[in-house]
Structures are given as C-alpha cells and as structure tokens.
Amino acid sequence: xxxxLTYTPDADPARAHGPYPGTFIVFEGGDGSGKxxxxxxxxxxxxxxxxxxxxxxxxxxxxxxxxxxxxxLEHGNGSIDPHTEALIFAASRAAHAHQKIQPALExxxxxxxxRYIDSSAAYQGAGRGLGLETxxxxxxxxxxxxxxxxxxxxxxxxxxxxxxxxxxxxxDRMEAADDTFHSALHSAFRSLAQAAPERYxxxxxxxxxxxxxxxxxxxxxxxxx
Length: 225
Prior knowledge:
Blueprint: E1 23-28, H1 35-48, E2 53-57, H2 63-73, H3 82-106, E3 110-114, H4 117-127, H5 132-142, E4 150-155, H6 158-167, H7 179-195, E5 200-204, H8 209-224
Parallel strand pairs: 1-3, 1-4, 2-3, 4-5
C-alpha cells in the first residue's frame, strides 16, 4: 500500500511559463481517457493558429525510448519487477526530455506530450506501490527538472476507462493489469491534480469529444497568452 497519495510536488516559480520560449503541455489520464484524440485535435487547432507544434509520447519519443517502450509494454519479455519497470520508464523519459523535448522548447515550439512524469507517479508510484514522491523525484532527476507548463488531465471513471481500453482489443502489459491496479492509478491522478490545481486543467473526459476539445483548447490558449 502506497502512503504518498497526498504528495504535493513543490512549486517551481521558474516554470510559471519558461524558462524556454516554447510551451510544454502534457496530457495525462488512465487508459482509454481520450488523450490521443484530444492531442490530435489540439495540434490541428494550434497549427491553424500559426503555432509550431510537436506531438510526442511516452514511453518512447526517441529511438532508444521506443526500444525501451517495447521492452516494458509488450508481452513476452519475461518478468519485470516494479523497480526495474520504474527505472526503464525513467531511462526512456531521460532520453526523451534531453534529446527531444528540451531542444524543441528552446526552438520556441509547443510540445504536446502524451504522458510524462505523472504517469510514472500513478502507474509505478501508486499502482506498483513504490510511492508517488519516490517516483516523481526519480523522474525529475532524470529530466533535469524539466516540467510542463500545464498538465491536461482527462478524467473518466474507472468503468468507462476500462470499457474504452477493452474496445481497442489488444492490451499491453499495463492495460492488462487488474482493476485494483487501475483504481489506484486513477485515484493517484486525481490526487495529484487536486493537490496543485494551478498546474492542471482537470477535464471530464466522458463529455462529447468536441466539448472536451473546447475545454482543452481554452486551457492551452490560456497558458500561451
């Protein structure tokens, strides 16, 4: 049982909007929360407004990151204990942050990332019982404390999340975990957002797609203004 569900990441004034000219927007949520759809719609809307946009994902985002993604998510790679799993994700995130995200932000690009530090906090910190604070600190060290300007959390019920994920068919190692695991990470996401509301846009992902998109776009434009 994790004891860190009330962990509050320390405020970082340097990330109020910076220190780079670009803007870093992260999307979080359980499996089937609609992140992929909403990232695509936001990227299109921002591109139409003349912004330079980079869409990326975790785990992955770089050549080494994609190899690590396959190693930890695909079935058939043998047993992966929670500590090893957490370190693989942290290694993938380190490459992603230093090789792809930071250079894009330095160039003034808007980076839209599907999952980031909070996913590890939820999945390995809460779901695997390693502790939110421990896993968050690991990721912050791995990334050189590269934090998002805003995190969009698409919140759907556990039942809705599981139904959507199941409708996609093939489940990876994380998606195939039991309901106890997914309930823990669902609670962790909400706990993180509620602990630091100024850093999150908490959006009901069960609403119609266009309604969710409007709220996501409003949140993005607010941080870009």
